[in-house]
Amino acid sequence: xxxxxxxxxxxxxxxxxxxxxxxxxxxxxxxxxxxxxxxxxxxxxxxxxxxxxxxxxxxxxxxxxxxxxxxxxxxxxxxxxxxxxxxxxxxxxxxxxxxxxxxxxxxxxxxxxxxxxxxxxxxxxxxxxxxxxxxxxxxxxxxxxxxxxxxxxxxxxxxxxxxxxxxxxxxxxxxxxxxxxxxxxxxxxxxxxxxxxxxxxxxxxxxxxxxxxxxxxxxxxxxxxxxxxxxxxxxxxxxxxxxxxxxxxxxxxxxxxxxxxxxxxxxxxxxxxxxxxxxxxxxxxxxxxxxxxxxxxxxxxxxxxxxxxxxxxxxxxxxxxxxxxxxxxxxxxxxxxxxxxxxxxxxxxxxxxxxxxxxxxxxxxxxxxxxxxxxxxxxxxxxxxxxxxxxxxxxxxxxxx
Length: 401
What we know:
Blueprint: E1 5-7, H1 16-32, E2 37-40, H2 46-53, E3 67-70, E4 73-78, H3 79-88, H4 99-102, E5 111-114, H5 130-133, H6 138-154, E6 177-183, H7 190-198, E7 205-212, H8 218-224, E8 230-235, H9 241-251, E9 256-259, H10 270-280, E10 284-297, E11 301-309, E12 331-333, H11 334-339, H12 349-353, H13 355-363, E13 368-381, H14 386-389, H15 394-400
Helix pairs in contact: 1-3
């Protein structure tokens, strides 16, 4: 007796279009399947599939279960339930490979959880250390560790499921934190950045997005979300990040300002912990923390590399004669940010590359910095970005200050 059908489509890419294409292929594969259970081919390591095939089928799985997880990874799905879930799915992800995690049911009783056996079994293609074959490599473990909390926190948002009619409360007129996001041609990533804001454990925020004359679907993605705490501003001519950030600052109502790039994202406790740090340190003008460093790949999307502290003990601003590393993350007191004139209001290449380093250096000349010992930002490095392509301009920028 055949235990389950394998859906052959593999997740590739990180843009929303690529994720939607993967969803459509899975839906087509599942619709053609005749089995009660299906396996997403790219969802989990092959030894899991080999091990599950060794069970007497059907094994002791509750009749009401729709998803079978092995070591916390979703592997098997009831075909009919998966088809319904796929047809409703409307979320935003950092890469197509996380779709199976977003499809997991929110009701724990609908999942059946198993653990891989400790012993090796050559007949199942299993040999050596269980940790080598039975779990993802370290980078993949961190991928799921950092992604799953956002998925879980936002599954009930009305923008993500067609059947969910939940409404959000009206925003406060003066939120504690204004999150400012300047975007230009970030349609493939901005949706996940916004979703991470919606996942915040503290809801006392507003998100002000400035579209700096994008010619892709960035504006469409920014306007997709119906949450009343989100405001979108459009600029008809591309003038660079510094100009846009000052315009967003004029719109901000919070007593704190948090920067978020349209290809990065926030852990769920960022707003709460950074604002608490500034509340508890009235002498500080800025708060930062640790950040997770990710490398964007074309096939897999962002892949976790390491955890970094951008604070230099000798020079907290990170500014030196030969190089500079921006403080990440960055939350400011709004009053102090406005007092120093905000961002360097220039449209040249320096205003588009080093605006963050310039601002923090000027602010920290007069005010203290407080650091939270937790990962509160996810920074994605893309080799083709304007900042990465122009790092050698730093000495010239330094002279122009």
